[in-house]
Every structure is written in C-alpha cells, then in structure tokens.
Task: inverse folding
C-alpha cells in the first residue's frame, strides 16, 4: 500500500462561475482505519450540480463546504482494509468519500453494492440522482396517464429517470436539452416523446412557443431542475391543477439572473391562484427512508436494460474540477462521474 | 307587488381603484318567474374581494363581469313567487342574485336556508368565505398541533374562520389586521393568540420583525389572502416544510405593486427548494362537493356560539359601491354585507 493518497480541497469560495484556482490538489498521508472503520480505494466519484451551491457560504439545507477540506462527493470503490466485521477486503461499497483517491469512514456510513451491477450505477441511475427523480415524482407528481410532463437536462441522471418513470406511468413526456445530439438521445435512448433544444431559442417567449408546440394540451407536471429560460417558457402553459416540483435550478447556481429569475413574485402568485398550481420544494434526503423501496423498484429494470442510463466518464481525480465546470455548462452527456482508478 | 326592481350594473371597467362612476343604479321591470323559476326579494347581499378581480377584463377562473349587466354577488332573501314545486312563498333561500333588490332564477340554483340561523350567515361564516377557510385548511393545511399559523384580514370572514379552525386543531394562531381595534377583536372575539397591526409597520422588514416576535418558532402555515407587505414579512420566517395556501391577494387587486410584489421569482424559488415549501393555489369552487360536510361540521358551532362571527352591515342597495370601496381598503370590520330590505 502507498503511503499517501490524493484529494482535492476547496481553496477559496468561487466568485460566480468557479475556476481552477478555487480548488487545490493535495497529497496527504494515507489514513489507517481505526476500530469500526473501513478504508476504501475509489474507482469512481460523482459530480453533481448541488456541489456548486455548497461552495457558497450561505445557510441552506446542508452546511456549506468547508475551506481547505476535501470537497464532498459520493463515490464507489473497493475495500482495501477493514476494522469492521461487516466489511471484508474486496467488497464494493458506496460512501461519501469526497473528491479523493481513497476514503476512510465508519462502517455505518457505507452501503454494500449489488455485485451484479457496475459500481458506478450507484452514483447515478441507482444513486442519489435516480432516487431524486423517483422520490419526487412518487411523493408530489400525482401523475395521471394522458397528462404531459416536462423536464430539462433530459439526458442527465435526474431528467432521464424522470422521463422514463413518467413514460411508464402513461404520460406524454417532453424533455429539454442542450443541442441536437442530446435531444436525439432523449428520444432514442430514454424514450421521451419529444425533446426541445434550448440552445435554439434565445428567450422565454421563444422557449414557450417551442414547448407549446410539443405540449399541445399544456403542461401538467414540471420537474424543475434548471430554472432560467426553461422555467420562463413553462409557466405560461402550465395547466390548471399543475404541479411544479422544485428540485434544482442549475441555470442560477452561479448567481446569474435573467428575465425569468427577475419575474415579479406578484405575477407568479396570480398564476398560482388562478391555475391552482402546486409548487413543491424537493430534497431527496427527506425521503431517504424509502431508498430500499426505490432500489427494489428500479434495479431490476436497470439489470434487464429496460431502464436506460448513460454515463459521462472523466479520467483521473486531477480532472475533476474541469469536468465539474463543464457539467455546470451542460457539457456532459449523461451522469458525470470521474474514474479514479 | 311593485312593478320595478333595482339593480347596480358595471358601467365601465375600473382603472386601478374603483370609483362611483364605474357603477350605475338602475330601475328595471320586475321579472315574472317562468316555469321552474323562483322570484326572491333580497334581505342581504354579499360583498367580497374577488369581485374586484372580475371587474377587469382578464382570463381567470371565472368569466369577467359583463358591462351593463347586474354586478354578480351572492344574496339571501325570501321567496315571493314560485313556479317550482320545491319552493314556497316565504322560504328563505341563498342564490347568486347579484347587486339587486330582487332576483329571479331557476330553482336548481337556490339553496334553502336553515330557519334556525340568521339568513345573512349564509353569506359569511356559513357561506363562501367560511367554506373557503374550511376547505383550504382541510385540503392543504396539514395542520399539526403545536405548529404556528398566520393569516391576515384576521377579523374578516375568511381570516376569522381560518384562525378559529386552526386554534381548534391546536396551533398557535397569529393574525394580521389593520388597526388596534381589529387586533383586539381578533384576540378577544376570535381567540387568536396574537394579532399584528400592519398599519404600525411601513415595510416588509418591519413586518417580518413584528411577526417573528409573535411567531418565535417560525411559521408553518400561511393562509394567504392579502399579498403585499404581509407576505413579504412572512416568507423569510417560514419554516422548513411550511405550507402557503394562496387564496387571495387583496393588496394587489387594483394593480398596485410593492417590494414584495416585485421580489424576484429566483429568490422565492430558492426559498421553496431550501425550505421544501408547498405553495398551493386555492379556489373554493374546486371543493364544492364538500359543502354539505362543511355545514355539518361548522353550523352547530355557529348555533351554539362556539364559533364566533362578526358582520359589518351597510344599509341600502344604493350604498353597495361605497361599502365595496371601503372593504377593499379594509374599512369593514367582519363580513361585509348590504342590507337590502
């Protein structure tokens, strides 16, 4: 075993869009597991939009990322040393190891992985993003066959799961994605009925017209993960009794605004009343007691290929920041992971 | 029987706050009931904030008020001629007779009143406003004992019912009202735990501080009927998992805005996500199949005096516009009705 491991820390808080100098790659001593702990060599780590929010120093649902500490992230890997009876060398596990080559954590914080599935699926389709989609739709979607659902980042791990679950429930499913290639993938790989390329439209009104063409009966469920121009296009064509599940707003994570972001609250309030909308904030951790139910429901479909997933694999821990910046701009296709070893 | 009846029509659409010249009092021929119709002499008619919205020509949940036609309104009165076997002269009934001395409508549109209760209660505590409170809280409030609820227009027919139902459910109930007298009434007559006088505060931040003093544990349920500065004070102190039931926004009905109305959507979206708020539009007509259940639940308490109600009675149809203007400015105390005969 080597004497050192690598990690990436947050060197300073980003001003707006993050840059290289906000991060620092470090060599540190390899930890030795204490009683009840397990040492893991990562094969893959996850990159997710929520990480941008944690880099700001604001009160939110999670504590902010601490400066000079390992950037937080989920990861998967193989046990290389164990001081807990429940885990043996060679076990494949998931844990919150951070942006790092290795992780040493209490056994209680680890989850053993199904050996019949690629470990990286525990970061996307069968991990937090897939569960976000599943738990949000189940708790708040009130989906009815024949209705219309819209979701952006349609080829991402949340959007692609939202779309597939809604199709299964009999809804018309319209995605939004950046570029013709992703739109093609949304339809051909993930079975969306249609997908609108947001890069082809320069404001909310054009977006609304493009969405309306694909949602002739209006929108009943909008799974919100982007905000911005897509939200601006969706709001006017929401149907009476429509549901908006507010799960994320990647377009606004680095502090930018736009016409939609600046829309007066008074206008939204009127829409909410007149159309009797339900607007519901979603955080998957509120539903985490249902994670086992989710795996039972979805894992068989992933194994059989009935549920599709796409991963975008960056190579090497040192490239994590670059891959993260690219993801924030929609440069990834599918679930963004970093291959560590 | 006289040959004519009186009515008030909308003469023109108000520009901002309505004025006398927007209305016209007319004498018209007394209608004669056709087969299946009933002629009613009104004792009281209702004035409600929603009427302001209908005066604008905008697509909403109801058709706009037509020009030169009788202003719409609920009313109660006595049957004076009947061509329907179900109604006899002398019966007390509720119907949508409008701003008028008499009404002639199909029997199917009438509801017979409980002879043991004053007919005017069918316009307020046991009518649309009371039902709005009851149905909204029941469907969307998810009230739990020990939580805190806030409602404005606390002595109005919706607010006072919201407060009394929430108290019964074991919540801490904080009202907002205009002036010391109404605040006293909210506490002493309607049993609110506290009531904040919005006239004493000149912006949302002051309002927030005043509300926070009375809601030390934050706000779990906000029953929204005013918008404006009260909403601006409520939003920052909403608790995680808070529910906002959007039932009305009287502060904004005549087109005014303010800092809260102009708050950027992006800010609300972030609050909705971080606090996992539920924002729900409410229209009582969606729940109207439960009206019988409401009466069964609430009428005994009104009869026994356990449920309090206060009416503000204007005298004479000709004074309806003046009373309406006053109500929009909060000049009424309790449910605003007009005594017609």
Result:
């Amino acid at each position: 075993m080597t004497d050192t491991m690598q990690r990436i820390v947050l060197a300073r808080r980003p001003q707006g869009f993050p840059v290289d100098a906000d991060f620092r790659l470090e060599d540190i001593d390899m930890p030795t597991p204490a009683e009840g702990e397990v040492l893991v060599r990562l094969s893959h780590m996850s990159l997710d939009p929520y990480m941008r929010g944690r880099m700001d120093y604001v009160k939110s649902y999670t504590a902010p990322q601490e400066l000079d500490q390992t950037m937080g992230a989920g990861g998967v890997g193989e046990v290389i040393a164990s001081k807990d009876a429940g885990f043996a060398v060679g076990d494949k596990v998931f844990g919150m190891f951070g942006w790092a080559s290795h992780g040493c954590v209490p056994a209680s914080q680890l989850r053993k992985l199904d050996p019949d599935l690629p470990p990286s699926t525990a970061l996307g389709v069968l991990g937090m993003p897939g569960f976000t989609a599943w738990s949000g739709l189940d708790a708040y979607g009130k989906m009815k066959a024949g209705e219309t659902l819209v979701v952006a980042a349609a080829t991402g791990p949340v959007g692609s799961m939202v779309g597939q679950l809604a199709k299964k429930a009999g809804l018309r499913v319209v995605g939004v994605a950046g570029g013709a290639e992703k739109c093609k993938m949304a339809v051909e790989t993930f079975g969306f009925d249609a997908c609108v390329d947001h890069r082809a439209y320069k404001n909310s009104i054009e977006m609304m017209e493009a969405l309306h063409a694909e949602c002739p009966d209006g929108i009943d469920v909008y799974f919100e993960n982007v905000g911005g121009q897509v939200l601006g296009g969706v709001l006017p064509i929401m149907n009476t009794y429509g549901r908006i599940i507010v799960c994320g707003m990647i377009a606004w994570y680095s502090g930018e605004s736009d016409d939609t972001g600046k829309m007066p609250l008074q206008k939204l309030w009127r829409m909410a009343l007149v159309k009797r909308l339900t607007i519901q904030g979603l955080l998957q951790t509120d539903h985490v007691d249902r994670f086992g139910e989710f795996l039972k429901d979805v894992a068989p479909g992933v194994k059989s290929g009935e549920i599709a997933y796409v991963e975008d694999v960056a190579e090497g821990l040192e490239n994590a920041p670059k891959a993260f910046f690219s993801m924030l701009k929609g440069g990834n296709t599918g679930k963004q992971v970093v291959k560590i070893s």
In short: The CA atoms of residues 17 and 254 of chain A lie 5 Å apart. The mean pLDDT of chain A is 96. The first strand of chain A starts at residue 4 and ends at 10. DSSP finds nine helices and 15 strands in chain A.
